[in-house]
Design brief:
This is Conjugal transfer protein TraF. With 338 residues, this protein is an alpha/beta fold. It is built from 10 helices and 5 strands. It has a 5-stranded mixed β-sheet with strand order 3-2-1-4-5.
């Protein structure tokens, strides 16, 4: 309740208390409130209402109830076509058990013929499967990543591209490293960060939640936390954030990371924030090309009954969709030096 309303409350209660009380519905007014009417014996008695004649019973015959339409039982699903894959799946075990219980030459041969039929169907499916995969780059995984000795070549090329992108990124970004001096995981994370910073020329700003230096002596130019940890939602240490002046920030992890995981998260975070082009980021991954089949559901409100039409629509919508979201950036005012 607001203060003006509270100030008027006593006056409103007083007015309510002084107001006359109206008689309730159905309550007879008192005598001194009905002086103009006189005493009760001067008033006429009310005339009782005359009884109404009852309505004659209706002579019309009620219409018979409309019979409900007979309910038809749900039609049973049709039996699978003879010797089809569904038929073999439903009946092959029956013929096998029949041959086991009564192993006559006829019953055993019948089971073996049915089994060979199933195996031949599977073999033809496998051959066609391989042919289709080899002829369609969206289905052939070797299009994305080769196998055998060529996979090692792809790994080496991707590693070189990853190193080049990290070095280019190090000139524009830095890492905020939140730690506590009594945190053993922070002590283990510090040398990993130091090696990465030395190799890439990357700036790492250590921020002490307790205002104390690391026991290992790493990052002696640390700063004391001035509320940045709370604004960034730091709940565990070590906590790492990728920072790009003047206001870019992407979380990396709140936990211990190996060197390879840290490198991968740096690239992914920069790509997500739009600081690395999609083509440059793709070259850091050990893939020849990243083809993804991701048709939007709104394009398939109805599934075509014709297999050729269905396949044509899937191929038409086959495309790589890898949007780069625009992450929200909280207040990241740099902390003051201790």
């Amino acid at each position: 309740m607001s203060e003006p309303q509270a100030a008027h409350l006593p006056a409103a209660l007083l007015a309510l208390a002084l107001a006359p009380v109206a008689p309730q519905a159905g309550e007879s007014p008192r005598f001194y409130d009905r002086q103009a009417e006189g005493w009760f014996w001067y008033q006429r008695d009310p005339i009782p209402p005359s009884p109404t004649d009852p309505e004659p019973p209706s002579t019309s015959t009620p219409a018979p109830p409309t019979p409900e339409p007979p309910t038809t039982a749900a039609s049973a699903p049709p039996d699978p076509a003879p010797l089809s894959a569904a038929w073999l799946r439903a009946n092959l075990e029956h013929y096998r058990l029949q041959a086991i219980d009564d192993p006559t030459p006829t019953k055993v041969a019948l089971y073996l013929y049915l089994q060979k039929l199933a195996l031949d169907k599977a073999s033809r499916f496998t051959e066609t499967f391989q042919q289709v995969v080899q002829s369609d780059p969206y289905l052939d995984e070797t299009t994305r990543r080769p196998v055998g000795t060529y996979a090692n070549l792809l790994n080496r090329v991707a590693g070189e591209q990853r190193e080049a992108q990290l070095r280019a990124l190090a000139g524009d970004v830095g890492i905020w490293f939140f730690y506590r001096a009594d945190c053993p995981y922070c002590t283990a994370q510090a040398p990993v960060l130091a090696r990465l910073a030395q190799r890439l020329g990357l700036t790492v700003q250590a921020i002490a939640l307790d205002g104390q230096p690391l026991p290992t002596g790493h990052f002696p130019d640390f700063r004391a936390d001035a509320g940045q940890a709370a604004r960034l939602g730091v709940v565990s240490t070590p906590a790492l954030f990728l920072v790009r002046p003047p206001d870019g920030l992407v979380p990396l992890a709140q936990g211990l990371l190996s060197l390879s995981d840290l490198e991968q998260r740096l690239l992914l975070a920069a790509h997500t924030a739009g600081w690395i082009e999609a083509a440059d980021y793709a070259r850091t991954r050990p893939l020849v090309t990243d083809l993804r089949l991701a048709p939007a559901s709104e394009h398939f409100t109805e599934i075509p009954a014709d297999p050729e039409t269905f396949l044509a629509r899937l191929r038409h919508h086959a495309q790589d969709r890898d949007p780069a979201p625009d992450p929200a950036t909280p207040d990241i005012t740099p902390p003051t030096a201790p």
